Amino acid sequence: MNIQTKYLGEVAIDERKIIHFSTGIPGFPDETAFVLMDLPDTPIFQILQAVRTPSIAFIVANPYQIYPDYSLQLDDNLIESLQIKDEKEVAVLSIVTLKQPFQTSTLNLKAPIIINTNHRQGKQYILNTDAYSSQAPITPQSVEREG
Fold first, then answer.
1. pLDDT in tens, 98-132
2. Dihedrals φ, ψ of 10, to 5°?
3. Rounded to whole angstroms, how far apart are CA atoms 41 and 26?
4. Structural domain boundaries, residue 91
5. Number of domains within the chain
6. How far apart are CA 136 and CA 69, in angstroms?
7. Does the structure show a pLDDT above 90 at 146?
8. Residues 6+ apart with CB under 8 A from 85
């Protein structure tokens, strides 16, 4: 299947790789099908692209690669709705807000995207804690300056 994307133009995707968000992503309730694509030349960042609407795409990153001590507890409702049986089938991503210069970009640690990689189901999960920010610094240098 071919789709138009925001960052990569027309791309062939494997329909079996589509991630289904039953209630969409906050702000985009009608966008329920996304695909995760690698962002060329960057090992940390990926693109979460809406299948139906080319203009809807998010740059995402595994928060543990930037904040190794990041920790979250999934509630039972989320575990049940995503049919999670084992933590090995869970991927956690954070949406990146790109800014210029790049070093001022931020990562949303407060509302990670949780994906069941086996069942291809996802949900943005808003953490009930003040321990994490929706605008955490993205670069280790800015983290060191804050700390």
1. 999 988 999 999 999 999 999 999 999 999 999 99
2. -80, 130
3. 29
4. 2-146
5. 1
6. 13
7. no
8. none
User: How is residue 141 written in tokens?
Assistant: 């240098």
The DSSP output letter for 6 is T
| The pair of three-digit structure tokens given for residue 25, joined into one six-digit string | 């992503």
Amino acid identity for residue 61 in this structure = A
Q: What is the CATH number of the domain that holds 58?
A: 2.30.290.10
Supply the pTM of this predicted model: 0.91
Q: Which two tokens stand for residue 133?
A: 């920010």
The residue with tokens 């979460």 is 48
Average pLDDT rounded to a whole number, residues 4-12? 97
Look at residues 43, 72, 48, 49 and name the one whose alpha carbon lies nearest to residue 60.
48
User: How far is 11 from 142, CA to CA, in rounded Å?
Assistant: 34
CA dihedral for 80, 81, 83, 89, sign (positive or negative):
negative
Point out which residues pair with 48 in neighbouring strands. 36, 58
- CB 74, CB 114: distance < 8 Å: yes
The dihedral through the CA atoms of 97, 126, 17, 89 has a sign that is positive
Between vectors from CA 108 to CA 119 and to CA 9, what angle results, nearest 5°?
Answer: 65
